[in-house]
Amino acid sequence: MAKIKLTKNELKKQKDSLKMYQRYLPTLMLKKQQLQAEIRIIEVRIKELLQEKERIDSSFKSWIGVFGERGFFTPRTLRITSLKTSTGNIAGVSIPLFQGAEFSTENYDLARTPLWLDTAVEKMKQVLLLDLEAMTLEEQRKRLDHELRVTTQRVNLFEKIKIPETKGNIKKIQVYLGDQQTSAVVRGKIAKRGMERAAQ
In this predicted model, what pLDDT tens digit does every residue of 33-86 receive, in sequence order? Predict the structure, then answer.
């Protein structure tokens, strides 16, 4: 704890600091609650995406063996050409928002390729979109987690250190100034009595 001056100016400074801490603390607590709520929403959405992906994967299992047919489904068959994101803001934190993705498919001869290839391409697009959205949500959660840690530290600093410390400083200064005032009154009375005795 830093040494404080026991003066009226310091008392005013400490009272102003206390007002500031007490004014900002509710805002920080509200931000903390908002961040916690948003993180929970993101976690629920990630869980939903993973369940949807599992559902698609299980529908794949019945005919996944056809992917083993050589030469039909290659890395060039389906590619992501662009990822569409925008920027959002939650409680002052800049986060990426998933807007979709664009894919390119390799041209193939419909007469020489198996019927399952079109379905496989569509299913793969669905899975890739789910993966990309989940990755974007993970980035959102990471940024919000970081901001939540910082905000929690600030709330604790104000709540557990700064406000009690400032209240203690104010009390200490008030006691000292009160003692000084009492002492001055006593000295004044003693001086007055001395002057009265000297005048007699």
Answer: 999 999 999 999 999 999 999 998 887 776 666 555 555 556 667 788 899 999
User: What is the rounded distance in angstroms from the CA atom of residue 115 to the CA atom of residue 17?
Assistant: 73
Burial track 32-68 (b if 16+ CB lie within 10 A, e otherwise):
bebbeebbeebeeebeebeebbeeeeeeeeeeeeeee
pLDDT band at 196 (very low <50, low <70, confident <90, very high): confident
User: Distance (Å, rounded) from C-alpha 102 to C-alpha 81?
Assistant: 6
Q: Which two tokens stand for residue 68?
A: 């083993």
Residue ranges of domains in the chain, CATH in brackets: 24-162 (1.10.287.3240)
Q: What is the 3-state secondary structure (H, E, C) of the chain?
A: CCCCCCCHHHHHHHHHHHHHHHHHHHHHHHHHHHHHHHHHHHHHHHHHHHHHHHHHHHHHHCCHHHHHCCCCCCCCCEEEEEEEEEEEEECCEEEEEEEEEEEEECCCCCCCCCCHHHHHHHHHHHHHHHHHHHHHHHHHHHHHHHHHHHHHHHHHHHHHHHHHHHHHHHHHHHHHHHHHHHHHHHHHHHHHHHHHHHHC
pTM of the model: 0.77
Of 7-16, 26-35, 116-125, 146-155, which gets the smallest average pLDDT?
116-125
